[in-house]
What we know:
2 copies of one chain form a homodimer. Chain A is α/β, with parallel strands linked by helices and 450 residues long.
Amino acid sequence: MTVTRVTLEENEIPTHWYNVVADMPNPPSPPLGPDGKPVGPEQMLAIFPGNLLEQEMSGERWIPIPDAVRDAYRIWRPTPLIRATRLEAALGTPAKIFYKYEGVSPSGSHKPNTAIPQAYYNKQAGINRLTTETGAGQWGSSIAFAGQMFGVEVRIYMVKISYGQKPYRRSMMQTWGAEVFASPSDMTQTGRAILAKDPNSLGSLGIAISEAVEEAAGRKDTNYSLGSVLNHVLLHQTVIGLEAKKQFEKIGEYPDMIFAPCGGGSNFAGIAFPFFADKAAGKNVRLIAVEPTSCPTLTKGVYAYDFGDASGFTPLMQMYTLGHDFMPPGIHAGGLRYHCDSPLVSQLYHEKLIEAVAVPQLATFEAGVKFARAEGIIPAPESCHAVRACIDEALRCKESGEPKTLLFNLSGHGHFDMASYDRYFAGELEDFEYPQEAIAASLAHLPKVG
Amino acid sequence: MTVTRVTLEENEIPTHWYNVVADMPNPPSPPLGPDGKPVGPEQMLAIFPGNLLEQEMSGERWIPIPDAVRDAYRIWRPTPLIRATRLEAALGTPAKIFYKYEGVSPSGSHKPNTAIPQAYYNKQAGINRLTTETGAGQWGSSIAFAGQMFGVEVRIYMVKISYGQKPYRRSMMQTWGAEVFASPSDMTQTGRAILAKDPNSLGSLGIAISEAVEEAAGRKDTNYSLGSVLNHVLLHQTVIGLEAKKQFEKIGEYPDMIFAPCGGGSNFAGIAFPFFADKAAGKNVRLIAVEPTSCPTLTKGVYAYDFGDASGFTPLMQMYTLGHDFMPPGIHAGGLRYHCDSPLVSQLYHEKLIEAVAVPQLATFEAGVKFARAEGIIPAPESCHAVRACIDEALRCKESGEPKTLLFNLSGHGHFDMASYDRYFAGELEDFEYPQEAIAASLAHLPKVG
C-alpha cells in the first residue's frame, strides 16, 4: 500500500493571497449601519487597522503576502497534501481521497494562517494589544501564538462551554503569553447583561465577539481581531487551497469535489476559494460546505441582513443566519457553533455556486475514529464534519463505481478534544434535534434594515 | 529573520537502520541469567519474535528497513530539521541552534519509529497481540497507533502517576483501539504484590514493565513490546539521526554538539548514534545525554549488572542503574522516570565516548516556555530537558563568543502535558532534591551475578 504525501519546498509558499471577490458574478453586498446605509471604513477604524480594512474592501484578485508573514508561515507551511490510501482501502471505495493537513501548525489548526497576518498588520499600524473571542480555542491559541511572534499582547474571551471542555487550550494560550477569560464574563456590559438574564449561560461565539468588540471599541490602544467571517480573514486562509492546487498539479490530479467544515466560513473558503477561480473559468469542481445539523446556518437559515454578534455591535451583513440571538446546542465542535456565516460564502451559496450539507454529531465522531484508525491522525471535532461528508461521498462512489477524486480540509488535530472522544466512546454524546423552534424564535428578532 | 526548515522528500527516508555496535570499540556485554551465564535467544523467544531478536544480537552496521515499514513511516516521515533563528535572537547567542522535530508523528513523539517495526515484525511472526508498559503515554499511544496499522491488538500498563496526570493520552490509545490499565494493577502478581505493600504506589516504568512481561510470558498468543532500552529499539530510532545528517549535508552544516533527553536511551540514541559513526571515524562531535536531577542514572548511578524491571523478570544487563527498586520522584517528564539506561548508551558513556548532564525540573519548564514563545512549538516535558541543556550551551557561547552549531532532538510536543505547564505557571512544581538516600538504599539491593 502506498502513502502519497505531496510536499512543497518552503519557497513554494504562495506569494499572494487569492481574493474571490474578483471572480464573483456579483459584487459583495455592503455592510450596513442601523440606518440602512453602507458603513464606511472610518467607523471600522475604531477596531481594525487601515491595512486590514483595505483588504476587507478590495476587489483585486491577488494581494501580496508581506515577507515577514511568509517568513512566519515557514514555521509550519507548506502543509502536506496526503492521499488517504488506508482509508480508501478500509472503505473499499474506488474514489481517491486526499486531505490537506493543517494540523501541523503550532496551534494545531488552520487558524494561524490569518492570525499571523492580523498580528503583523496591527503591529505595523502601531497597535500592541488585541482582543478576540474563541470557541473551541483553536482561534484563541492561534492569535496567542501570532501575538507572541510579533510582540502584540492578546486578551481572549473564550466561550464558557469550551472553557470547561477544553482546559488545555486555555493553558496553551497562556503558554504563549495571552490572557484568557470565560465568556460571558463580568468584565463587559454585554457579559453582565447576559449573566443577569441567565447566570448559567454556556456562552456562544456571538456573545464572546460582543465582549471582545466592546472592549476594543472602548480602548484607543486596543484593536479587535476576528478568526473567521470577514473578507480579509477568508482571504488569508486561501494559502491552503493555493498550496493544494500546486500539489495536485505536481501529481497530475484534480479534485472533483472538495469538502470543508463550515462555521464562520474561513476553513471552507481557505481550501475552496482558490478552486472557485477555476470553477468561474468553466472547470467542473463541486465545493461543499459541511455544517452541524444542530447549527444548520446554510441549510436551514435565511439569507438576510443580520448582526455578526449577539448584542448587535457589528454592522449588519447580508448572510445566511439563524438569527443573532440563536443559542446553538453545546456540541463538541465548538468552532461550528455560530449563528451566521461569512457574507462571501453566503452570497456564493445563495447564487448556487457552492453547496452545503449538514451532518449529525455522532456520525462525525464515528467518521473521526474511522479516519484515525486508518490514517493515524486524530481529527478535531470540527474537521470530523468534513471527514464524515467525504466518507459518505466515497461510499456513494462504492455504490456507483465512480472513481471520483475527493479532497477535504483536515483543518486541525484533536489533541485538545480527547475528552469529547472519551464521551463518544462512553456513549455519552447525543445527536441534537434540529432546533426548529429556537431558530424560528431567533429569526423573529432579525433586525429591520433602515 | 529567516526560518530555515530543511525538508526531505519521502523517497529520502532512510532505507537502512544504523547499528552502532559495528562501530563500538568493544563488543556489547551480553545479557546474563540469574546464574551469571549469558542468556540465549531461546529464553527471549517466549516474549519476542525471532526477527527482532536477530536485530537485538546483530553486529551488522546496516539493517534494511522493510518496505511496509518505510511505507508506514511515510505517514509522518521525513521529519523537518529546523533552525531556531527566533530562539537564537531571543538568547542573543552567536550559536546556530537546530532541532529535529519528531512531534509531527500521529502520536506526537519519536516513539512510532520503533512501534511501527515492532508491530510489523510481530505480525510477520504470526503474533496478533502485544502487551507493553508506558510512562508519560508517548510509547503507549505509539504502539496503539502501530498496532492499529498492522492489525495487532495492544494492551498497555500505564504508570499510575501518568494515568492520572495525562488522561488524554489514555483516550488517544483507546481511539486507536488499545486497552489501557493503570499500573500497578490487580491483574498481575507483580501488581498485586506492589499494591499489598503500598496501596498508594505511584507506579514506575520498572513496575509496569514487570506487569507487561509477566502477562506476555504467561500467554502463547501474546508477545511483549518495549519502547526503549533494548538494542533493536535504539536501532529503529536511528532514522532520526540518519535523516538529520542528510539535512545538514543539504545546507553544508555539521553540528558541534548534539543534545537529547535520556530516560531509557532510545531518544538519545536515535539522534546521536548516526553521528557516533562519524565520531568513531575521527570527526569532532560531542554527544550529550540529558537526564533529570531527580533520576540521575548516568550522572549518579553505578555501572553494573541489574534488572530492567522492578521485579527481576528481565535478564541482567550491564548498564548504569540507580537500582531496580529505586522509585523516582513524580516529576512531569514521565518518560525519564526510569532506574536504568540502555546497555549500549551505558557502555558508550562508561567508555567516555558520550557525555551526560542532569538538569532540574523547574529549569526544564522555563526552557520549554522560552522555546514555545520563540519558536511556536510547545515541547513535551521530556524534550524540555534537551532544550534546557542546549540553551545553557548557547548561553555559554554568548559568553565566549563561539559560534558553535548545536542540535537537539525535539522528540515530542507537549499537547498532552498542558496540565504540567499549568502547574508550572501556578508555581506548583518543585525541584526534587537529588534522592541520595533512596538511591543508596536501592543500590544496596543490586542483584549478585552468578
